[in-house]
Design brief:
349 residues, Purple Acid Phosphatase, chain A, domain 2, six-stranded mixed β-sheet, 10 helices, 26% strand
Length: 349
């Protein structure tokens, strides 16, 4: 009995040391993020998914989605049954059952700040938030008032805290939240930089999603570049852009990454202009320069029928070359993209 008792402190000490070493090793691991563009699950895709299952859109890309610690996408339409459509050309609302598609696609965080989240008013926005809470999917960018819309969400991965904020700079202006009305968060200068800095103080990395720019435009506008730089100056590590439905270049600013537009992801449209896109694999670590890999995908739904397919061969090469040219125009330091899709700053050459 005495021998057993005398050995217990040593055993407990060994267990504590082992636990501390495991936590330390975990802290040193990078956090991998898959960032995807506009996701809209209404319209034509609803009947297909109801027939073929919630995992239908991800058949060809599941390995990429499952391999990341976090999958972040822009949820371009609310889930819900309530509300009346706003008077504009396109209004979207999605059957609440299709929230299971997000789970099937390993989605962890969604941006709610976009120009369709309020298409049917505040009721579907609240339905969406309730559904996301129920299915433990994190979100930011919209709420029942501006205070809620400004709130960040935080994911804890590999011993690190990843903060996420989301903003919409798209019209109609009536969709922007106010002190007394529901809506999306417009990044007013009076608070946006303070919110980013505050989030940085209590997290390891900050990711900011911006719904901005002009549809089908392949270059960012000056205000997007200025805002992205200011966000990074105040603590953001990654900027994820969407809204144009087509891809734009990637910029490294102070070693941080700005993806001005990720293009479409699973989007219920037969657009002739939005034919290819990308998933962006980002490694968050303490290295001075962010690492990212581009995964080109075919999103032309007349060919892929709402199932994004990785590009191969000449199509993949042409996409990467186009991304390289667009990115070179944005960077003051030369950038390169290798055959694996890795995009990097070229230094000391």
């Amino acid at each position: 009995m005495n021998r057993i008792c005398s050995g217990l402190p040593t055993l407990i000490l060994l267990l504590l040391v082992t636990l501390l070493l495991a936590v330390h090793q975990n802290k040193d691991e990078p956090v991998t993020v898959i960032a995807t563009g506009d996701t809209m699950l209404g319209s034509w895709i609803e009947d297909i998914i109801k027939e073929k299952g919630h995992s239908y859109p991800f058949v060809h890309i599941k390995e990429y989605l499952d391999s990341a610690d976090l999958h972040i996408t822009n949820l371009e339409a609310p889930f819900g049954k309530l509300g009346e459509p706003y008077d504009k050309q396109f209004t979207f609302r999605v059957d609440p059952d299709l929230v299971h598609v997000l789970r099937a696609g390993s989605v962890d965080i969604v941006s709610l700040a976009n120009n369709h989240m309020m298409d049917y008013g505040p009721e579907p926005l609240q339905e969406t938030r309730d559904l996301l809470d129920l299915h433990e999917i994190l979100y930011a960018g919209a709420g029942s008032n501006l205070t809620e819309a400004r709130k960040a969400t935080i994911a804890e991965v590999n011993g690190k805290r990843i903060g996420f904020l989301s903003y919409s700079l798209t019209f109609p202006e009536e969709f922007w939240a106010s002190d007394t009305s529901a809506g999306t968060c417009f990044p007013y200068a009076s608070f946006v930089y303070k919110d980013v800095a505050r989030l940085k103080n209590k997290t390891d990395f900050v990711i900011v999603a911006c719904h901005w720019g002009q549809e089908l435009r392949t270059t960012p506008k000056d205000y997007q570049v200025e805002l992205a730089h200011n966000l990074i100056d105040n603590g953001a590590d990654v900027i994820l852009g969407h809204h144009p439905h087509v891809v734009q270049g990637i910029e490294f600013y102070k070693g941080k990454l700005i993806a001005y537009s990720l293009g479409n992801f699973v989007f219920a449209s037969y657009s002739e202009r939005a034919r290819d896109s990308m998933m962006l694999h980002i490694s968050l670590s303490n290295e001075a320069i962010m690492k990212a890999r581009i995964v080109p995908i075919n999103v032309y739904n007349r060919e892929v029928d709402f199932q994004p397919v990785p590009l191969t061969g000449d199509a993949r090469h042409a996409f990467l070359q186009r991304m390289l040219l667009m990115s070179q125009e944005l960077n003051s330091v030369p950038v390169g993209i290798n055959n694996d899709g890795d995009i990097e700053m070229i230094v000391n050459r």
